[in-house]
Amino acid sequence: MSPRKDPDPSSSVPCFYGAELRFLRENAGLTQEQLVEGSFRGAPLLSKIERGELGMPIDLAIHIDKKLSTGGFFQRHCENVQQARRSGIAAYFADVAEMEERATTIEEWAPGAFPGLLQTEAYVRRLIRMGKPWMKSTGVEELVRARIARAAFWKQDDRAYYWGVLHEGLIRRPSLPPAQMADQLEHIVAVAQSTRCLLQLLPETKASDPLMMGDLRVRTFPDAPPIAYTENVHSGQVIDFPPLVTEYRRSYDLLRAAALPPEASLAMIEEAARGYRHEAQQQD
């Protein structure tokens, strides 16, 4: 049996909250399964809350307060914990970011920017400065740290199965200096190879695609219906109406059917990275 991963209560508000929850649960002699019994939530969710990896839904907080007789402690503080977890993350994306940690599958279509889970620090900083040139440096760096922190997703033993489709234009039209562009593409290849996630490129020769009007993220869950999420520069929308989610998933299926196979896609990304690396060396 692998050793239990106890959170460091001093490292963050969510970890303190989770450690307190675990202490009170164990002090009451309850297993995780016993504590969530009678709620609409499962033990895997409770485990992640205790490790400080997820926030607590209000319905579960109310249930736990009653079961542990904590006088409303978890209900009173669950929103504060959520706010601490969302520091540096856009309000419209906060719920979606948290969904990544409890999803079964993650499917993404990226026509205009590399997906957040695959971005390097330099790429994140460039995107933020392009989208919000008026933002102060301290604000930019807070957003960069929050975005990069999401990459902890790849270290989770029980992470979701990831499938991404990228537009070929992302690797052909550099948004960074050559050396940093090479770093970004090499990072994508390294993540794909080390995590066995699936990545495809949609060729530029495709004149149109089923989702040509914008990006798309689809999440499926073990204990909840799937959701779709669309986003533009300053806002995003979660879509949970089942018939509409079904339509988005069908469009995504058509999209990846039109994309290059994963092996060929990674080979193209590697080739582009070598090109940028060579260009950078020529400039030195």
Automatic annotation (TrEMBL):
InterPro entries: Cro/C1-type_HTH (IPR001387), DUF5753 (IPR043917), Lambda_DNA-bd_dom_sf (IPR010982)
Ranges annotated as spanning the membrane: none
A UniProt-annotated Pfam family: DUF5753
Domain HTH cro/C1-type positions: 21-53
Protein name as catalogued: Helix-turn-helix transcriptional regulator
UniProt organism field: Streptomyces lunalinharesii
